[in-house]
Request: fold
Amino acid sequence: MGVLSAAAPVRADADQATIARNLAENVLGRGLVRTSRIDDNGRGLTIRWESATFKPANPASHTREMLQTEAQFAAESIFRVLGSIRDINFEIVQGRRSLASGRASRDRPFRIAFTGDLGR
Reply:
């Protein structure tokens, strides 16, 4: 008689990339993640998404705050479930326009850089 595990280990990078996409979309909104790829022998994730909060009419300071919040919440949701992921490299876009990029890590401080007119 076999024993079923409550949480089977996720082995395939493609499976982890899909799980990461789903976790991020739970925070950001369905269909907003453009790409999700496992890197660094399963320890890293590269993810790109369409901003859920960007509005051209908002002041740059408000936009920076909202984009940072998006990235932190998405990263936290991924880190909570995918324990093997140590670092997340991300890019936030609006269509073809890059708004911000950065890195969330279990071991280092959160980093985000804003592009173009959002930079400071």
